[in-house]
Amino acid sequence: MDLPYLINYNQIMRVFRLLLTSILTIAIAIPVASAQTGGASYVAFGDSIAANPTWAEQFDKSNGQPCQYGKDSYPEKLAGNFPSFYNSSCSGTKITVLDGEQKPLSETFDYSINQAQDHGALGPNTRVVTITIGANDPWPQAMGYGYKASSMSIDPKDYANRIRSRIDRIKSLAPNARILLVGYPEFVDDDNRLCLVNHDGGSSALQLPVEDPTLKKYFRSLNQAIAGAASQLGAEYVDIATAFRAHNTCAAGADRWVTTLVDNPGVNLLPMHVSSAGVQAQAQVIRTHLGL
Questions:
Q1: Count of Cβ atoms closer than 10 Å to residue 74 Cβ
Q2: Pairing of strands 206-211, 142-143
């Protein structure tokens, strides 16, 4: 069945790709800590899918840090399951910056690890470390979130090699911790529909769906790479995507766990990020994985 297009599809997607690149790389986040001697029990790292700031939190520079984090995020929800917690998530971050690559608008993963170490958050008392990262890195076959892709295949070895020294450093600082590589949610389901506009208004409800298999393939390839890398790194992969199936940008009302470019009035979450319901889902998947 043909999808209803309100304006030219190519024009929509050209604008969307530009906005997506800006949104996913602009988001900025870092820590408030409750670490104790010997390290915090739970330490969180990651980009904006972990940090999940609102618009207000995103641009709040009152603490003088290059990164901010959101109060409604999966690390904050999980914090209640642990006696101490340190949030070192940093939205917009990359694993690292290789020669010729563009620097992140916030900081790299190394910065986040430095912050955790400087605040005494990583130590023998650390039991769980979560990491969601990689979407902002330019992978050779999946550049520009897949929109400049050649084969749309992210090699688990490439992911493992890029992050390995950071994982090894965390292990050395927190030798008793379980390290969880937490995957990404899905924004586009098997039907390839991405809804750029959502307004849940009863008789005035409005959606603007377009066909976008690229974003689906990108996040599926990235999740497969993270899963494959986890076993190489002595870490554990946590599958978030499966829980988000049927809760993508085109799901109705409360069933929609992710945001889109234009959302309901009053929604102050960043576009193409995670809603409050989605944050709860992320946290519950991780709790189940940990047996909490």
A1: 30
A2: unpaired
Task: Give the pLDDT confidence of 180-232 residue by residue, as tens digits.
Answer: 999 999 999 889 998 888 777 665 567 788 888 888 899 999 999 999 999 99
What long-range pairs does 253-262 form, CB within 8 A, spacing at least 24?
Answer: 253/200, 256/198, 257/185, 257/281, 258/185, 258/187, 260/187, 260/194, 260/195, 260/196, 260/197, 260/198, 261/16, 261/19, 261/196, 261/197, 262/196, 262/197, 262/198, 262/199, 262/208
Q: Provide the whole-model pTM.
A: 0.84
Q: Which residues pair with 129 in a beta bridge?
A: 43, 179
Q: Among positive and negative, which fits the CA dihedral 248, 73, 136, 5?
A: positive
Upper half-sphere CA count for residue 85 (Cβ side, 13 Å)? 16
